[in-house]
Amino acid sequence: MSTFLEEVNDRMGGTPIQSCFHCRKCTAGCPVAFAMEYNPNAVVKMIQMGMKEKVLTSSTIWLCASCETCVTRCPNEVDIAGMMDTLREMAIESGVSKGEKNVVKFHEAFLSSIKMGGRINEPTMLVHYKLKSGDLFSDLGLGMSMFMKGKIKPISPRTKDMGSVRKIFKSTGK
To answer: Which candidate, 66, 78, 174, 162, places its Cα nearest to that of 119?
Structure first.
């Protein structure tokens, strides 16, 4: 039976997580570290210590913006953003995605929008998300203001090569 560290490394590929020597440059550069339950460096340490449940149930893995600032700053090229993606997948697969339930619903709405048109269709994505989350009116005023200012377009363009989009979704099993 493999350890949590081995499982994450196998799924990620690339530079192994144990290459991290905890310089904390990933955390220093992270634009959302202030909102995280555990900073990126702490998540790496927790993986190395086999703290699977604590990592997979934390809100941190859902708050990562995947901006890859951490990857750019890492002197050992550990793909922290890829690690967070892997951890989110593992949390969903194991059914322990307690950390940020509406973030999962947002991801589903986002992917559904991409699957339909190859690009984000904001109105469709918003409706899908609002229905899934049950949070229908909390930001209605903001949404209307954005719409009136032209920040949300009622109709988004579709990707010309939808065959490629379908191929990507099929290859990932989504």
So the answer is: 162
DSSP code string of 10-49: HHH-SS-GGG-----HHHHH-TTGGG-SS-HHHHHHHHHT
Low-confidence residues in the chain, pLDDT < 70:
97-100, 174
* pLDDT attached to residue 109: 87
pTM listed for this prediction: 0.71
Are 129 and 81 found together in one domain? no
What is the structure's pLDDT at 126? 86
- Domain with 162, as residue range(s), is 101-172
CB 113 within 8 A of CB 125: yes
Residues 19 and 49 in one domain: yes
